[in-house]
Design a protein that fits this description.
Elements (H helix, E strand, L loop, with lengths): L8 E14 L2 E14 L3 E5 L6 H9 L6 E6 L11 E4 L11 H11 L5 H11 L15 H13 L5 E5 L7 H18 L2 E6 L10 E6 L2 E4 L1
Parallel strand pairs: 3-7, 3-8, 5-6, 6-7
Antiparallel strand pairs: 1-2, 1-4, 8-9
Helix pairs in contact: 2-3, 2-4, 3-4
């Protein structure tokens, strides 16, 4: 199963271009990137380190300004296009003064999720990290913090999830746990996922694979 039948794109990227200078060299990080991700679809964006994956996600999110091109996010029922968009960056961004459970429960409460602590604990359980719920980020491994950051993103039940190397600190077994949960959420809840990775294992769980090389996208 892939995208929901007749599902409209949740994310559309049209003609995205981004260049920057590195010394005397002009680096063309993105060269006319075109991409769509539909509801219920898990799209894996493959590329080696430095291929432009993070630049593409940053431009989609508005963290960097592209030189040209357009990004459109459509999330029915949201007051703004980005209200139901969740992000898992390479750096987890967990609040060090809060426990993992509190980190996950905070956005749930702000988003009006019923019983936010219960929902947060369930999200941690699904990613096999509930045993560390009462620990703070500096007391767990990087892989455990990475899974907590993903739980924090998923607990608000977003329409679109953008994830930048969310399994980079995990062993193969835990990588499979995370990827299986993302695929389940896509197919059960209609979540649209764009997952940037250099790990070929992710392709086994993808509905569609695209590769980024020298600033250009190609089908996987």
């Amino acid at each position: 199963m892939s995208a929901l039948p007749d599902a409209a794109p949740v994310l559309e990227v049209r003609g995205l271009r981004k260049s920057y200078r590195r010394g005397d060299e002009v680096v063309h990080a993105l060269q006319g990137v075109e991409l769509q991700v539909a509801a219920g679809e898990l799209v894996v964006l493959l590329g080696r380190s430095g291929s432009g994956k993070t630049t593409l996600l940053s431009c989609i999110l508005g963290w960097e300004d592209p030189d040209s091109g357009e990004v459109e996010v459509t999330a029915p029922g949201a007051a703004t296009a980005w209200e139901r968009t969740a992000v898992v960056p390479q750096q987890t961004g967990l609040l060090e003064e809060l426990t993992l459970l509190e980190n996950v429960a905070l956005p749930a409460r702000l988003a009006g999720v019923p019983a936010p602590r219960t929902a947060a604990l369930h999200a941690l359980e699904e990613l096999q990290i509930a045993g560390e719920a009462d620990r703070r980020p500096d007391a767990v491994s990087l892989g455990q913090a990475q899974r907590a950051a993903l739980a924090r993103a998923l607990v608000v039940r977003p329409a679109l999830l953008l994830a930048d190397e969310p399994t980079s600190r995990l062993d193969e077994d835990l990588t499979r746990v995370v990827l299986a949960e993302l695929r389940r959420r896509c197919h059960a809840d209609g979540l649209a996922v764009l997952l940037a990775s250099h790990d070929a294992l992710a392709t086994a769980y993808a509905d569609r694979v695209v590769r980024l090389a020298e600033g250009r996208l190609a089908a996987g």
